[in-house]
């Protein structure tokens, strides 16, 4: 066991391993590389490509952003537990209720899109977001569906209102 007490007498604490879904803390990019770093004993100096490291350092995972080259250390650990992935039904429900404009997405179209997406990716619900609510009712009420826009061509009066900014 390597002593990881700093020269100031405090224990070096690393953030937990963020797993394969890590994002860069600096730029937010999702392409992150990982390289295992063995422990560095006290009064040891290691020269690296990015500079000099002084011991003591615990064993750790060195993360590096492939986009901006920012590096940081994380504790060695197991992959964090992920939430249960969305099912095709839950993904179809989310697709049907996430359109930012009043377009009706028919249930069979949403189901076909969800089936295709489920073959290509694994989707997880974002905690606290209403659209990704995974409690999909078996027979959802009609008022939860987007309402279609009226197919009424603009009149000359409504076009004049838009131009004048009223």
In short:
By secondary structure, the chain is α+β, with helices and mostly antiparallel strands.
How would you characterize this protein structure?
This protein is α+β, with helices and mostly antiparallel strands and 166 residues long. Among the domains are: 19-75, N-terminal domain of TfIIb (Single Sheet), CATH 2.20.25; 82-135, no CATH class. 19% of the residues lie in helices and 15% in strands. The protein contains three helices and five strands, in the order βββββααα. It has helices spanning 88-96, 107-120, 156-164, and strands spanning 32-37, 45-48, 51-54, 60-65, 71-75. The strands form two sheets. Strands 1-4-5 form a three-stranded antiparallel sheet, with no helix packed on it. A hairpin with a 5-residue loop joins β4 and β5. α1 (88-96) crosses α2 (107-120). The radius of gyration is 26 Å and the shape is elongated. The mean pLDDT is 76.
The CATH topology label of the domain at 19-75 is N-terminal domain of TfIIb
Shape: elongated
Enumerate how many helices there are, as a single number: 3
**Fraction in beta strands:** 15-25%
Tally the beta strands.
Answer: 5
CATH class of the domain at 19-75: Mainly Beta
What is the strand arrangement across the widest sheet? 1-4-5
Low-confidence blocks of residues: none
What is the overall pLDDT average?
76
Distance between the termini: 73 Å
Helix content: 10-25%
Radius of gyration, whole Å: 26 Å
**What class, by secondary structure content?**
alpha+beta
Please summarize the sheet with the most strands.
3 strands, antiparallel
């Amino acid at each position: 066991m390597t002593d990881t007490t700093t020269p100031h007498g405090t224990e070096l604490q690393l953030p937990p391993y963020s797993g394969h879904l890590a994002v860069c803390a600096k730029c937010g990019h999702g392409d992150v590389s990982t390289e295992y770093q063995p422990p560095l004993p006290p009064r040891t100096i290691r020269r690296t490509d990015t500079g000099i490291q002084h011991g003591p350092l615990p064993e750790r995972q060195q993360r590096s952003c492939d986009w901006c080259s920012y590096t940081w250390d994380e504790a060695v650990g197991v992959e964090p537990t992920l939430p249960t992935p969305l099912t095709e039904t839950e993904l179809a429900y989310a697709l049907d209720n996430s359109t930012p404009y009043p377009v009706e997405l028919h249930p069979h179209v949403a189901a076909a899109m969800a089936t295709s997406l489920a073959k290509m990716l694994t989707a997880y619900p974002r905690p606290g977001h209403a659209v990704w609510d995974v409690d999909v009712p078996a027979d959802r009420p009609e008022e939860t569906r987007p309402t279609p826009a009226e197919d009424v061509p603009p009149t000359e009066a409504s076009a004049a209102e838009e131009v004048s900014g009223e």
